[in-house]
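Lab manual, section 2.4: Encoding a predicted structure.

Procedure: take the sequence of the chain (300 residues), apply the prediction step described in section 2.3, and record the output as structure tokens. A sample record is shown.
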Amino acid sequence: MNKKTFAYMMSFGIKSVLFRKKDPILGTVILTDKCNLSCKHCSVNNITGVIHPYSKVRDEMQTLYDMGIRILFFCGGETFMWHDGDRDIRDLVIEAKAMGFMIVNVVTNGTFKLDLPEADLILLSLDGDRERHNEVRGDTYDLIMQNISEATSDNICFYMAINKINKDAVREVCMTAKTTANVRAVSFNFHTPYPDTEELALSTAEKKECCDVITEMMDQGAPIFNLKSVFPYLINNTFPVPCVQCVVIEDGKISTCGRCIDIPGLCERCGYFFVAEYTQIFKGNLIVIFEMLRTYTKFV
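Recorded output:
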């Protein structure tokens, strides 16, 4: 993280904590819900199959920027399937940087060539070792690992959604992140149980077991992009939701925090680590803030 970005984030955080400001800082643009996979835990893919045109995406980026957002995520569906004429995901990242976004990240399933050095982070879904990842996402593990080995930058961060199927593979994913070239870190979430994926949700005891493993791997030097001081809130779902500092825009609709806000009762079962982290940071939790400063400056 460069000094200008760090200074801006610190200023935003101080204003949010001291003056209880509710302004957003992180925004996500949904480029499409079209995806080449049908993962067991996903409820948001291939509902419409629409790839939003560049003009609409550009307008949505401007909307988020005008709201004061400076951390931008591009999500899908599968982001690398986005195109409009000759434009592809690289053009959007470059455009976002030129617009003034300070951090621009892209979320992907990793099945496409990873030639995107312009992104600050490529958050790549790896959901276990080969066996358990393939059970969740289909036979894609070897292709993903090949694409990582051929990536043109070391800006990849594994993005694992922990569920009933892969909960015993957390240690393996940490070790893979630690030993694989071009991978900077791993970031975890717990499965958020959309109505058609309830059977994949973890119990409180299972969440604790996973957090214990993640803590152990942190202590062993695994590059983990999460804050262990937030784990108790995650395990018991005692963090406030939604996170007003985060917004998602999809086809012109802005949602506070995420798309799941429209599903009754789902926010209260949120498994997103960053939501718990952000809500504690902007509440002024000093322990979380100090850990965030150490962690974010290391990986971004």
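Check your result against the sample. The longest helix spans residues 3-19.
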